[in-house]
């Protein structure tokens, strides 16, 4: 079934009895890239990658607005898959121009991500200024052929979170999660800089995630807790479609982070910018390459990435949009807000010939 991509106009004032959130940012459609800036500095994680600027991404087809029989006007971010290279494979990384603090809900429609590819470290994340101070929240991240997502927090100061995977803690707090904790120390200064990690369920990352049409990732950042939901394409709550999200009515979150000592998270996570990037190799992959399922392909990740451009054809993002919500002010007047709803079904289309260049919100 072809999903609807029509724009719905909702009156927030009339929906307040259903949701205490109002839309404050709609990053979608042909204007998506107006809200982001391209990162073209050397890779901070020492990857075999060359992040390109906006003009280069636009002119070489590594970024654009994609449409097909199944969807219309979604953001495309790719990796060069046609050239052998010597000094890093061209790729893309974008960061939001706006930054955000607590009491914010992010709802992100991911239709395809660069997962399930040897040599690729892809991530959708939020990061504060002066990393690790200001914090980092990883919403969709893993490497190589991984099939499970990792929800991770990194902090500059010491922060330990409660273990909601522990039945005793879950029972006493009433909080259950779909994932499971594998580390509780968020500090970047801790050995290995692992962060506090919740391991996702099967097929929340990689080729099966893409084959199933991706899904919606929702992040609710409150002063006392950070909650993440990852909804498959067929389980997206109806209130998300209608632009009136009510997280308290959703199923249990996939990840839930609270400071073990009751500290406010606002001191650890602030001025957060959204980031989408596709790294090639990098410190995480390089450290594990020799023992990974990809090791038989080449003696090193860089050697593989340099000589096998076609291997990166599936290393691309299709982003249906990001809607950002914040609490309705008690004295706010009713405001007409245009909301682009996420689609409730999607196939794995062939759309590449329909990727169009962008320029300040206008398609060429």
Automatic annotation (TrEMBL):
Family matches, as SUPFAM superfamilies: Concanavalin A-like lectins/glucanases
Record InterPro entries: ConA-like_dom_sf, Glycosyl_Hydrlase_16
GO terms under biological process: glucan catabolic process
Subcellular location, record wording: Membrane
Predominant location: membrane
Keyword terms, alphabetized: Glycoprotein, Glycosidase, Hydrolase, Membrane, Signal
GO molecular function per UniProt: hydrolase activity, acting on glycosyl bonds
GO cellular component, one term: membrane
Isomerase as UniProt keyword: no
PANTHER family: ENDO-1,3(4)-BETA-GLUCANASE XGEA (PTHR10963:SF58), GLYCOSYL HYDROLASE-RELATED (PTHR10963)
Family to which the UniProt record says this protein belongs: Belongs to the glycosyl hydrolase 16 family.
Protein name: GH16 domain-containing protein
Source species of the chain: Cladophialophora yegresii CBS 114405
């Amino acid at each position: 079934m072809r999903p609807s991509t029509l724009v719905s106009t909702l009156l927030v004032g009339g929906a307040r009895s259903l949701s205490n959130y109002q839309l404050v940012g709609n990053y979608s459609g042909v204007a998506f890239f107006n809200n982001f800036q391209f990162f073209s500095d050397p890779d901070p994680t020492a990857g075999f990658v060359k992040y390109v600027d906006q003009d280069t991404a636009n002119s070489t087809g590594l970024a654009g607005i994609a449409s097909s029989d199944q969807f219309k006007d979604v953001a495309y971010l790719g990796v060069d898959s046609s050239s052998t290279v010597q000094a890093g494979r061209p790729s893309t990384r974008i960061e939001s121009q706006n930054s955000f603090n607590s009491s914010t809900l992010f709802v992100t429609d991911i239709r395809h991500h660069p997962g399930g590819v040897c040599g690729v470290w892809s991530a959708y994340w939020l990061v504060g200024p002066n990393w690790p101070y200001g914090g980092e929240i990883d919403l969709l991240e893993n490497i190589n052929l991984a099939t499970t997502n990792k929800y991770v927090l990194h902090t500059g100061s010491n922060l330990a979170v409660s273990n909601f995977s522990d039945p005793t803690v879950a029972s006493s707090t009433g909080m259950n999660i779909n994932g499971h904790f594998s580390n509780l120390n968020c500090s970047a200064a801790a050995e290995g800089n692992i962060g506090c990690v919740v391991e996702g369920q099967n097929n929340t990352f990689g080729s099966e995630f893409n084959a199933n049409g991706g899904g919606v990732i929702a992040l609710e950042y409150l002063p006392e807790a950070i909650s993440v939901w990852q909804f498959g394409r067929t389980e997206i709550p109806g209130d998300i479609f209608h632009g009136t999200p009510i997280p308290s009515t959703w199923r249990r979150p996939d990840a839930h982070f609270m400071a073990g000592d009751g500290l406010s998270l606002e001191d650890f996570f602030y001025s957060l910018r959204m980031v989408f990037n596709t790294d090639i190799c990098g410190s995480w992959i390089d450290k594990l390459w020799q023992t990974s399922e990809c090791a038989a392909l080449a003696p090193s990740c860089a050697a593989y990435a340099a000589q096998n451009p076609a291997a990166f054809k599936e290393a691309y993002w299709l982003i249906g949009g990001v809607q950002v919500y914040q609490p309705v002010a008690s004295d706010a007047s009713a405001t007409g807000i245009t909301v682009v709803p996420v689609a409730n079904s999607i196939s794995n289309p062939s759309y590449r010939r329909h990727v169009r260049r962008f320029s300040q919100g206008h398609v060429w």
